[in-house]
Amino acid sequence: MAGRPQNVPDPSKRPLLTVAAPVADLLSEPSAAAQRLTQLLFNEVLRCLGEEGDWYMVEALEQQKLTGEGWRGYPGWARKDGATFIENRPVLDGTVTRGTVASVFSAPPVYLSAGTRVEMLAKHKENLVGIRLPGGMAAWVPSADIRLTGAVESPAVKRGQIIETAMSFIGTPYLWGGRSTFLHPIRRNLPVSDAGDASVETGVDCSGLVNLSYRTAGIDIPRDACDQHAAAKPLPLGQLKPADLIFLAPGEGQQVNHVILYLGGERCVEAAETGRPVEVETFTSRFGYGYKEMMRRVPSRESRQIYCGSFFEEGWTGTDGARVYDRR
User: Fold this and answer.
1) pTM, to two decimals
2) If DSSP codes are grouped into helix, strand and coil, which group holds residue 260?
3) How many other C-beta atoms can be found within 10 angstroms of the C-beta atom of residue 187?
4) Which helix (H) or strand (E) covers residue 113, if one does?
5) Does domain 94-148 have CATH number 3.40.1190.20?
6) Which of 119, 195, 203, 305 could form a disulfide bond with 173, CB atoms 3.0-4.6 angstroms apart?
């Protein structure tokens, strides 16, 4: 079995960073004008692979991507002023379930996006719970906006949590590479300087919506739609359950490039495209025909491919990546 080539450093030995900004862009090049690949949240762990000027070249370890070498952290460039070196991975036992504001004693409040993981403190008062922010500051957040990470819950409960978070994104603008709660409704009640970096846009793309919805339920799935499809259990359309996923590809043999979250019945939720906010649709409004009719349609080699997948084991009986087809 071939080993690692000589003189090539083992990436796992590289130093670790943690994200020190509420929301930070991960870019394709070390330039503010480069393409946004994804977004990083407070306390996410990065592996530092190098640096150039004001930028670190990193792997976002909590956002997995399938490469020729297997699953790796999402690669890209992050600003140095939004990350801090750490010795060990932090123990984070709480997850923010929707965009919220952390109140800090004698300091400006801090915006936290849905999906942000934090260290919980054994402090409670009224409807607030204590957390520790990067840098060691204690803060208070509404207890309704945070959930314990790693809680043992049934698949049905997890599915419900995923859907609850996804529905909280309704109205959030589509943002290419976006993976953060829409900030502006919260910012209206805060000075801009207190709400986070005003230069960082917030919003979600299709897979960002799905990634964060699962993350708040304590389930880490890949970042991009094609990788979510690769990691999910293939599922026949007729076996879809709420919180399972519907994947689209432009044609037969082409890579998946879009994902939709199934809500149950005839409904689904998605971040469809630029200019449209996250919204709930029916199968008829989205595909031109209802759920049951889709299962009866004849495949067409030229039509868009529709695949289904699940990250839950219970109730799954499929053996192949069963497909249905959209003639449009």
Assistant:
1) 0.87
2) strand
3) 17
4) none
5) no
6) 203
